[in-house]
Fold this protein.
Amino acid sequence: MILYAPLVIVTIYSFNDSKSIITWQGFSLRWYFDMFTGPESAKFKVAASNSFIIAIVSATVATTIATLAATAIVRGGAARYRTASLGLLSLPLMVPEIVTAVATLIFFNTIGFSRGLTTIILAHIVFCIPFAYLPIAARMQGIEDTYEQAAMDLYATKRQTFTRILLPLMMPGIISGYLLAFIVSLDDFIITNFVKGAGVETLPTAIFGAVKMGIKPNIMAISTALLLVSVVFVTISYFVAKADNKNK
Amino acid sequence: MRKFLKTLSAAAVLSLTAQTALAQEEVVVYHWFEYLPQSVIDKFTEETGIAVVMDTYDSNESMLANLKAGAMGTYDVAVPGDYMVEIMAGSGMVGSIAEGELANKGNIQDMWMDVPFDQGRTYSIPYQWGSTSFSVNKDVHPGNVHNTNLIFNPPASLSGKINMLDSQGEVMALAALHMDIPQCSTDRDQLKALNAMLLDAKQHWASFNSDTTKDLLVSGDAAVSMIWNGYSAKARSEGANIEYAYPDQGYLVWMDNVVLLKDAPNRANALKFMDFLLVPENIALVTNYAQYSAGVDGVTPLLDEALRTSPESNPRAGIKAEFVQVCDQATQSVYDQIWTNLRK
Amino acid sequence: MEHSKGAAGAVTDTYAKERVWLLMPTWLMLSILVVIPVLIMLVYSFLTKEFRGGVIWEFTFAAYDQFFFDRGLFGDEPVKIEWTYISIYWRSIWQAGLATVLSLLLGFPTAYYIATRPQNSRAVWVFLITIPYWVNLLIRTVSMKFLLRENGPLNDFLLMIEVIDEPLRLINTALAVQLGLFYSYLPFMVLPIYASIERYNFTLSEAASDLYATKFATLTRVILPSIKPGVIAGCILVFVPSLGAFLAPDLLGGAKNFMIGSLIEEQFKGSAGNWPFGAAASMILLSMVLILLMVFSRQQKKAQPQGGQ
């Protein structure tokens, strides 16, 4: 998998004893100890938890909003709405991040909203929406409505039809949308840096300087640890799902 | 859905607590990335009981953009470069420090007291200063390095292996030194010549990059790179066989300054923070970390031996050194256009 | 996207009555936090620039004038059309387009492969695609740069297996930028396609093969139309962000030439400090993409009747 090639480098160099990534000075675990005991470990811990809270909340809200919107647009008739809504929904994609950042900051300041986690989450929800919406809507367009018709013929209410029939069918789209929103939020630097306010750090803002000023192995170590956590997470969920299937 | 509501409310609570936790005595510092070591922050908090709340930026201009977009009044101090101090003062974004408010003001070196961007230091104090020039890989170019021809009119051996800083001010100012014209020239022939010279030089350049100059030199991907002196020293200590140039035509100096911002919410604490950074022992910690130079008396004996004697911190004698100048608006727009021409 | 019951691509009016309520959160959220900021920038693009960042509240067309007209270095030559910015836009569109094609070429088979895995390993594959993206984009791009270096691992490997005789010059080329963009945005292509293909009823294609349709015909006539929405969604998600990207062009392409992203960024974060021009440039980008989307969705509507057959 090509996707993983650059990451192999990240992993290898996280074990480098040198202070710079360019030169290899032997195998060492020092950057992993540094991660927990180094002078900046507290900062990274807070930043990582902030990042995950923001990513989870924004992805969840964005996906919920996008699912509702997709239902309205794909299953709500009225073709005229569709083009307008598609335009509106992809608007956050089209505006360059730096412009959104400056404009959003101006807006928050004008209405006297003080910066903090809340402003970050609001801004993230907004730019996550198109990433959540597009896969969900694409999925929904592929679902024939015969199932729903059948359910309604059997006197299921609209709500029941939605939660029991449509929602499960849409799941792959929703999961895809959620994951995209999640990684987009986890990755964002420019907008976050403008709307976050002093004293709040997320992973990208905490490591950005360190990476820009010549990427150091401690950043590589943090990234590797993050990868490890996510791989473990996926493996566990895989086995849980498997066990679930067996029980059925 | 319930789970989702739970997460949401948890986050709401968290963000609330994050905002109420700020009741303690604090100073809000808007600073460059990776420029203030954690040990110095801890020392300050230990000595004064004042917590340091940090926010960071990656360029003078992005700091200015953030402040102009309405973040003024939320920060106490910022650390702009020399020309940016002048711009901020011109836009009325700095506070003022009365005589006697800074106990350690006397520690500032004489040469940094009456600087063009703050005569008599009424709103800023020195943080670090250094120089901008370029470094040359001695394996590729064993000869004399002290000439700006190496970047603007290079020999064939260096052509295509040159990295320039992605910074209009510094490239233009060095180009002006190379051509021996004033930095904010209004002479049309000089400007046209400058434009032509840069366009011609561009064919020899491989890239514009300010952030990875050190890695480019250490890895050998670039044989010549414009670079800041402290960075060049770090590249050399990581094994690059390079020499930092003090070109015959001149080189650039810059100084980053701690500036008291207008409407600082914790003005008294900000002054304590500035006073703290004027103590030689404290600012020496920063200098040893950043590998530049402090503008405070009594720092030299406290520096690491390697830094004190490094060629990057000891310029060749008798070479012209200039700050990047702030041009007036009409002149600047010509320079902006030359820069755009160069990058189209 | 036309009203067509029953067929793949079902767009119905089941929830027409609830439509307003379902759309409410979207409209509220987006109009407050996107439309208002966009309007702010639209206003800014017609204001006078304050020297070195900021705006002065005086109405002017100066920013748009600067974009489209060339008055020479000193502003007093006869007016010509300014090609500088148009060529920057053209180059960016070209780059983003190639990156999109690249992502589609690789993303489609990947999505198809995932969708044809057994039910419970699909989720694992989907996660595997996104996991690399838990690592920050900047780090990924820097690693990519390291990989592509002249004496980097990729060249070493290619030299070792003797595919090439001398190292390829990849870094600071347009190809490196496309690779970078492709790598940055691949999951944005894979996941939407996967989402629409996963649902795809493979028994239907089996039926088609039973009816002696060739594999190719099955693909083009039966599978492609039903996953078109996913492909379109993927293309939008890769193409549009690629247009404004600046990390890959900066780090991998050497930044010798401006792209839309870096041009606009320079206006706010660089020494140019020309907010109205940055705002105007974004408005031009915005209207360009909007028009593109509109033309696209109109064509879709026209194409639909035949596509449904």
